Amino acid sequence: MVDNRLSPHGGKLVERVLDPKEAPGRIAGLKTVPVKGQTVRECVSLAYGFFSPLEGFMGRADVDAVVNKMQLASGYVWSVPLVFDMPKQQIDELEIRTGDSILLTFREKPLVILEIEEIFTYDKELMAGKIFGTTETKHPGVRRTYGYADHFLGGRVTLVSEPIIREPFKRFWKPPAVLRKELAAKGWERAVAHQTRNVPHTGHEWLMKGAWFASQATGVLVNPVVGEKRAGDYIDEAIILGQDVLREAGYFREDVHAVSLLFWDMRYAGPREAVFHAIVRKNLGCTHHMFGRDHAGVGDYYGTYDAHKIFDTIPDVGIYPVLTKEWYYCPVCAGITYEGLCGHQKSKQKFSGSVIRSIIQDGVKPPRLIFRPEVFDVVMSAAEEYGFGSPFVTERYLAEAQPVLTMPDVKK
To answer: What is the CATH number of the domain that holds 129?
Structure first.
């Protein structure tokens, strides 16, 4: 039996980016629709194959299959809908019809050509309930779903130009085709992926090291999500630079650790998002994906290890899930230890994100055992250079920080 764990999901890596010479002619005369940042990130990720085998936004058959059966209409496992919404009033005003092509723009620059294969409606309450396991608007994914307009446009997207990625993200922007070549050049036959939206404390570090041991991996690919931010989150610059410095400071050897970014806005869909993450990292060339406690969860909507259990209920997606428990500080062991090994359960001290954040907010360097000093220094440096003095997202950051990606003008 042939192991397909180095193959993209669906067997073929999607890449839909126009040749610069073609762009002017392809977009001439198209109706234009401006879009927000979330759609931009999804379009770029679709066009470069992060979401293979998808070539664009889902039609009704795919949405229905994903919502009810956690698979695409073709039968491939898929867990989170990817849709493009538009109000019917706007559709009517622009006289958009099935079979049309329209130009989506960002900040008045051409983004993608959307070939409209279907215009449809869908029950948003049904979608939210199936995907998130709740219809409560306190859940951020439910709120996002209810915020969709009343119609959806399904169809393939083609990126008009290569995006411009600003610093410090530029060196971490590696589309699947590029990253796969880099991992092959490193000799990483077994690569384990780490999903994160945080600056790393030592619990995260040992989560990665434990998964490396458990999977007998050649290397660890840290793949932070860069997307929508809320006040109080770490700024993206601090996250990606903080992750990268673990290798630069020697906590991982140069040949067993790498960092690349993923444009994606978290849905906080718990176990369903865990499956989505596994598929995306499979497309990046990873053979394994680590899943710890409360993966992609929010509040108390999901069980601690629901993201582990879901892999027992679905067909093999072509990437090995590495299921780990919690790493924490044990004062009796006098170090970082693992829930599956340590017998001092009553003494364990969990890594409190809120406590660490409050210490950092005061400019105090946390104890080395829970936060590497090099990480702290990078985080504070990022705060000064990119965060207007704060390593956390503020209203000023939301209003004034430049987008991570923009689109160039198309030369005629």
So the answer is: 3.10.400.10
Report the distance separating Cα 28 and Cα 11, nearest Å.
Answer: 34
How many other C-beta atoms can be found within 10 angstroms of the C-beta atom of residue 55?
A: 17
Tens digit of pLDDT at every position of the chain (412 positions): 234 557 999 999 999 999 999 999 999 999 999 999 999 999 999 999 999 999 999 999 999 999 999 999 999 999 999 999 999 999 999 999 999 999 999 999 999 999 999 999 999 999 999 999 999 999 999 999 999 999 999 999 999 999 999 999 999 999 999 999 999 999 999 999 999 999 999 999 999 999 999 999 999 999 999 999 888 999 999 999 999 999 999 999 999 999 999 999 999 999 999 999 999 999 999 999 999 999 999 999 999 999 999 999 999 999 999 999 989 899 999 989 999 999 999 999 988 777 788 888 888 888 888 899 999 999 999 999 999 999 999 999 999 999 999 999 997 6
Active-site residue among 190, 197, 304, 394? 197
Q: Is 197 a catalytic residue?
A: yes
Prediction pTM value: 0.95
Going by their DSSP bridges, the two strands 262-263 and 151-159 should be labelled as unpaired
Q: Which domain holds residue 323?
A: 170-405
124 and 202, same structural domain? no
Catalytic residue at 135? no
Residues 127 and 244 grouped into a single domain:
no
Q: Are residues 289 and 379 in the same domain?
A: yes
Provide the number of structural domains found in the chain: 2
The catalytically annotated residue of 196, 287, 324, 337 is 196
Determine whether 198 is an active site residue. Answer: yes
* Cα–Cα–Cα angle for 124, 127, 129, rounded to 5 degrees: 110
Cβ–Cβ < 8 Å for 58, 145: no
Distance from the Cα of residue 379 to its chain's centroid = 21
